[in-house]
Amino acid sequence: MKISKEQVKNIAYLARLHLDNDRVELFSRQLSQILDYMEQLSEVDTSNVKPMYSPVEHPTPYREDEAYSEFTREDVLKNAPEEDGEHFIVPKVVS
């Protein structure tokens, strides 16, 4: 698929990029090559290939989900600038 210089200029305009003519020509060729390669890949029969999210197998480490309390309420509240014994006291931000 051929990407024209006008298309590259339009893409550059939308991306707010200023490209000189040499760059426009370079990107036109490179984008055309990329799209040609994508067309070539689309011709490959992948009907018997299982979909995957990554070409590398990533083992997922599992652990038991256990609820536990690491700190007491008093431990957490002792660092608060202001508290009422059960909750943090914070300035009102919505009127």
Descriptive report:
The protein has 95 residues and is mainly α. The protein has a domain at 5-42: Histone, subunit A, CATH 1.10.20. The chain is 39% helix and 0% strand. It is built from 3 helices and no strands. The longest helix has 22 residues, at 21-42. The N and C termini lie far apart (59 Å).
DSSP strand content: under 5%
Query: How many runs of DSSP E, i.e. beta strands?
Result: 0
- Provide the CATH top-level class of the domain at 5-42: Mainly Alpha
Shape: elongated
Distance between the termini: 59 Å
**CATH topology-level name of the domain at 5-42:** Histone, subunit A
What's the CATH architecture name of the domain at 5-42? Orthogonal Bundle
Largest beta-sheet characterization: none
Derived structural class: mainly alpha
N-to-C series of helices and strands:
HHH
Low-pLDDT segments: none
Radius of gyration: 29 Å
Mean pLDDT: 90
Descriptive tags:
95 residues; mainly alpha; Histone, subunit A; 3 helices; 39% helix; 0% strand; elongated
How would you summarize the topology of this molecule?
Blueprint: H1 5-14, H2 21-42, H3 73-77
Helix pairs in contact: 1-2
Task: Offer a concise description of the structure.
The protein has helices spanning 5-14, 21-42, 73-77. The protein is mainly α.
